[in-house]
Amino acid sequence: MTEYRWLLPSVLLGGADEGQPVRRSMRDWIVDTLLFLAACGIALLSLSDIEGDPPALVLTELVVGALACGAVWLRRRWPVMLPVVLAMLSTGLVMVGGPQVVALFSVAVHRPFKVAGPVVLLSTVTLFPYVALRPDPELGYWPSVVVGIAFSGMLLAWGMVVRARRQVVWSLRAQAEVAAEEARRLERERIAREMHDVLAHRISILSLHAGALEFHPDAPPEQIAKAAGAIRSSAHEALQDLRQVIGVLRHTPDDPTPERPQPTLADLPALVEESRQAGMDVTLDLQQPEPPEAVGRNAYRIVQEALTNARKHAPGAPVTVSVAGEPVQGTCVTVRNLRAVPAGRARRAGAIPGTGTGLIGLAERVDLAGGRLEHGADSNGDFVLRAWLPWP
User: Fold this and answer.
1) Are 19 and 77 in contact (CB under 8 A)?
2) Looking at beta carbons, which pairs linking 259-262 to residues 24 or more positions away fall under 8 Å?
3) 3-state secondary structure of 182
4) pLDDT confidence bin for 17, thresholds 50/70/90
5) Burial level of 197, CB count in 10 A (0-12/13-18/19+)?
6) pTM of this structure
7) Burial of 8 (0-12, 13-18, 19+ CB in 10 A)
8) Which pLDDT band holds residue 356 (cuts at 50, 70, 90)?
9) Environment class of 205 (CB within 10 Å of its CB; exposed 0-12, middle 13-18, buried 19+)
10) Distance, CA of 313 to CA of 280 (rounded, Å)
11) 314-340 confidence digits (pLDDT tens)
12) Strand, coil or helix: what is 322?
């Protein structure tokens, strides 16, 4: 967006402020060269109109006309001053007509109507003394004035159309840039949500196994080996998830590496089993036909985050997970932490502290999916998280 904000004065207003240097692109050089040649051509066609004038006046016409044609190169730097000066000179001189045409068109392109309109009006006013000094024997006074006014109005209208088109092009480019930035922001937020859900789940499992080793150093060697293996496996999976997230952030359109498939509702039993192996008491009730991929992925992430929160805030508490729904009714995910905690499995002092962003992330995910999220303690004191997801 910064680039297009810088281009706004260059594209719409003809560069910097009045009198400041202007940087030309290759296209600008081509356009300015063509307009310079056009101004010189019109000035050369006006040579026949000064035949018979006194030699001093002819010399003045040639010198001023040449200077006016050269001044066309200043039309971007002086888009207002140039047509004003040329309008004053055109009161009695013929060969400034070509440069004046280019200058009037330029001011209509590079300045708004409140500036270009008075400049064109000044040029129109100078028609009256010019036609009086150099009458056209074929048209007469008033027809010549009318033709001159019509031509000036045509230049103004043409320049305004070009200016309006440039404004539309700039606006579309700016909107495209804003849309691209918004898409990148949404993608970063999506990656952040996925990273939070996945890594929080992995780290909470690591914490459970590490806590078991800490509080039971005299456990049998096979149990210690099993816990160490689970820690190694969870750490390896966490690193894989981190690599996948970094790979998405570094992904380019030319990179043929596809993104790893996202989990769906079919992966929910494996998630529950992984939590059971970490020592959680989880019961799964899955009464749900295979939903659309987006619904299944969101349901999986909701259960994953709910189990992670249960491990953080209520370790040892039995958890029940229920997923049910139909195509028309949508999918309802319910995760309940039972109030009763078995003896000896109370919350340890070394448990992972919560950041408070898990439920916020779930609320954002469910809201983006068009669903509803409710959570809190029920009448029995159990913590219940309930989410409803519509099918597309």
Assistant:
1) yes
2) 262/293, 262/297
3) helix
4) low
5) buried
6) 0.49
7) middle
8) low
9) buried
10) 13
11) 777 899 999 988 888 889 999 998 764
12) strand
